[in-house]
Q: What sequence folds into this?
């Protein structure tokens, strides 16, 4: 056994359901917390970012049009697939974040449970945040949440796996599609997650994973006219301000960075941040006198 | 056609007493601007100067924000039930003074008295009444227990519905415990200043509401003030983007209610007469100076001729003229500047090859007027099909299938409103679900209600005003 030379994995991006290398041909060295080389990760370019937007836009119609029940089934399927590959992710998270094996296992467990939590939200959020409005007139009036569209997410830099899932799952639970920029120094768990997503019935393009220099990839995405929103979780103060200014160009919805404890059960903020409210009116007509007495 | 002539039926101006000059309203007092600047507000239908108004500068903004900050401590600590009663008082006083305010608004804005009396003012009172009731029920609004106000809200509103936009901004802000500095538009400051007087009548604590008339620079100074916690803006998309850039990197919470290019979609099975009324309401209500106007008519090809004949016949019966006349349908354009913007875009429409039509219509010799206008032979590439005109100008496009209607309707940087006219229920729901717009009127148009959330997708802005949703903009959630 010890004589056998192990097979290294070539880490690749996950875009449109496929696993391309960066079109730029660039890679960068990823090390563990002690500086030991782990792998070369693709260093995505501006072109990779634009390709990811095309893939995310293409996937939006189908994913937003899927039933909430179906989206819930698929998010739960992701949890199932992760559970089966737990050992791999425990190893990768331990390396990436410098955790002991048992601490890394707790992180992966929490990440799996997070998918389950959001899987259950897909067909409930509309009832919680939507509803009928009692307008003063003979009209039926209903407000319902709809996904904002294509969302760019800067994944948290420290929490490379649980944090990543905590910011991606709520965005797609409601029917958005996403381009996520993995933690710059610890992108490997995110890139491996792509392999799980690819085998979970999640349509290609719903989640697109890019690795590389966060600021370099985020800039064209913040300015992109076909991106509808941006979550700045993984940006520092200076980058966040620059990206928010760029995002104003087409009035992207912006979720500013804030301190989050990803081990805590989340609230609904990340679900509602990327929802629009649509209100539909229709005359009710009238059957004449008053209401029924029966 | 006109068998009977209409006799003039002017609403009396005597009900409103406009002072020759007004100050800024800061900390419960009317005061001059620090630099003594003033500007004139005119009646757009006659160009008569109505009053001279103090013009807020940076120093005044600072003074008002300080007053609001000082008032915030007590106002936010007040039990919700007490805040509610102040808002109920305001709602009631507005109801009592609604004829006076309607005439005032018509004078300052140029819109028909029929609209200020029957739409603007009832909605203003209703809005305060609605949010009054929320003030002590915020725990039940779905944002968790004990949601907190943000602090000082800087609010900048447009001239198309001056008092209604004030209500949309101030009512939810006060109900949730914030204090307010509001800048009305430079062409329509009067109703906001009358509202200041209503705050005094209601006994509202000093500094809770501050009114700063002025131009865009006053608004920019308010948005930029470091002690403002919340920015709420209704106006153009260009200014909205500037605000979004300005607040980047701060903790200011922002809601933006911006432009639109609403598609009014008429299918071949629609009740034509009702659809025609809806199209007219959609684009000629308030002279089309409405962000959610149905300014693009998408008509199914097979009924185009029939619909346009009916529509033209109906437009010929619209009465344009004295906004104070109770029979007037179309009032004045709000300002010379807006009139020239409309004129430029309409000329561009003709230059790009669209076909212009207006009913024969005599325009008054003074004031700012524009005849109801429709364009046919419009393509999606035409400027008049893409840019918001904000005037009584309808661009007519056609489609063959529901899919094409949806694609054309969504082909816009905006996403505020849309209309659907068809007798087929399943088609309404299918099309409504595909339209990327915040408010969809099916078999009706331009309906508003304080309980109904209003706001856009895409570059029409973000956040909602009205309803339970409207509370979120003013709470720390």
A:
């Amino acid at each position: 056994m010890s004589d056998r030379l192990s097979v290294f994995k070539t880490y690749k991006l996950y875009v449109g359901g496929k696993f391309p290398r960066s079109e730029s041909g660039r890679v960068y060295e990823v090390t563990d917390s002690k500086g030991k080389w782990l792998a070369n990760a693709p260093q995505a370019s501006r072109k990779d970012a634009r390709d990811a937007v095309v893939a995310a836009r293409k996937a939006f119609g189908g994913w937003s049009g899927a039933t909430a029940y179906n989206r819930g089934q698929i998010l739960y399927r992701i949890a199932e697939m992760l559970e089966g590959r737990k050992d791999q992710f425990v190893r990768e998270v331990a390396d990436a974040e410098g955790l002991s094996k048992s601490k890394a296992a707790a992180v992966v467990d929490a990440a799996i449970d997070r998918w389950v939590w959001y899987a259950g939200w897909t067909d409930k959020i509309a009832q919680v945040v939507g509803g009928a409005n009692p307008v003063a007139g003979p009209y039926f009036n209903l407000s319902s949440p709809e996904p904002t569209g294509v969302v760019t997410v800067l994944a948290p830099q420290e929490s490379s796996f649980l944090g990543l899932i905590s910011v991606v799952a709520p965005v797609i639970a409601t029917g958005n599609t996403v381009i996520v920029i993995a933690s710059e120094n610890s992108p490997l768990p995110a890139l491996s997650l792509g392999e799980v997503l690819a085998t979970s019935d999640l349509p290609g393009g719903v989640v697109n994973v890019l690795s590389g220099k966060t600021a370099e990839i985020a800039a064209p995405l913040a300015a992109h006219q076909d991106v509808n929103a941006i979550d700045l979780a993984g940006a520092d103060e200076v980058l966040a301000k620059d990206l928010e200014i760029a995002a104003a160009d087409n009035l992207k919805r912006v979720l500013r960075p804030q301190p989050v404890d990803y081990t805590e059960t989340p609230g609904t903020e990340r679900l509602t941040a990327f929802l629009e409210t649509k209100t539909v009116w229709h005359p009710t007509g009238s059957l004449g006198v008053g209401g029924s007495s029966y | 056609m006109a068998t009977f002539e209409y006799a003039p039926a002017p609403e009396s101006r005597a009900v409103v007493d406009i002072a020759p000059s007004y100050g800024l309203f800061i900390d419960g007092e009317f005061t001059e601007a620090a630099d003594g600047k003033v500007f004139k507000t005119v009646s757009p239908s006659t160009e008569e100067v109505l009053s001279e108004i103090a013009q807020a500068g940076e120093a005044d903004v600072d003074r008002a924000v300080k007053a609001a900050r000082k008032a915030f401590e007590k106002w936010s600590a007040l039990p919700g039930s007490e805040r509610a009663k102040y808002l109920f008082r305001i709602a009631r006083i507005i109801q009592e003074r609604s004829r006076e305010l309607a005439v005032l608004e018509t004078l300052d804005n140029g819109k028909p008295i029929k609209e200020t009396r029957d739409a603007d003012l009832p909605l203003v009172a209703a809005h305060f009444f609605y949010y009054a009731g929320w003030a002590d029920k915020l725990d039940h609004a779905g944002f968790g227990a004990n949601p907190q106000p943000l602090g000082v809200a800087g609010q900048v509103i447009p001239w198309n519905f001056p008092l209604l936009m004030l209500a949309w901004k101030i009512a939810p802000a006060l109900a949730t415990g914030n204090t307010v500095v509001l800048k009305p538009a430079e062409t329509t400051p009067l109703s906001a200043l009358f509202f200041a007087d209503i705050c005094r009548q209601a006994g509202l604590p000093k500094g809770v509401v501050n009114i700063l008339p002025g131009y865009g620079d006053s608004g920019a100074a308010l948005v930029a003030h470091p002690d403002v916690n919340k920015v709420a803006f209704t106006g153009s998309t260009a200014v909205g983007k500037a605000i979004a850039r300005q607040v980047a990197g701060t903790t200011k919470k922002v809601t933006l209610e911006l432009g639109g290019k609403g598609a009014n979609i008429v299918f071949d099975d629609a009740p034509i007469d009702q659809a025609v009324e809806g199209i007219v309401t959609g684009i000629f209500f308030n002279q089309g100076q409405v962000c959610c106007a149905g300014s693009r008519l998408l008509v199914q090809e097979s009924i185009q001729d029939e619909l346009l004949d009916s529509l033209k016949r109906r437009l010929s019966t619209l009465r344009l003229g004295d906004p104070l006349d109770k029979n007037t349908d179309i009032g004045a354009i709000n300002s010379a500047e807006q009139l020239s913007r409309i004129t430029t875009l309409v000329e561009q429409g003709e230059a790009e090859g669209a076909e212009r039509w207006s009913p024969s219509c005599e325009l008054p010799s003074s004031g700012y007027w524009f005849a109801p206008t429709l364009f046919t032979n419009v393509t999606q590439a035409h400027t008049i099909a893409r840019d918001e005109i904000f005037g009584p100008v309808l661009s007519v496009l056609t489609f063959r299938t529901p899919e094409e209607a949806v694609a054309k309707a969504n082909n816009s940087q905006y996403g505020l409103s849309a209309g659907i006219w068809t007798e087929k229920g399943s088609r309404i729901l299918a099309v409504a679900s595909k339209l990327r717009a915040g408010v969809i009127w099916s078999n009706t148009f331009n309906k508003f209600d304080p309980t109904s959330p209003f706001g856009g997708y895409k570059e029409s802005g973000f956040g909602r005003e009205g309803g339970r949703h409207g509370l979120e903009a003013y709470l720390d959630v």
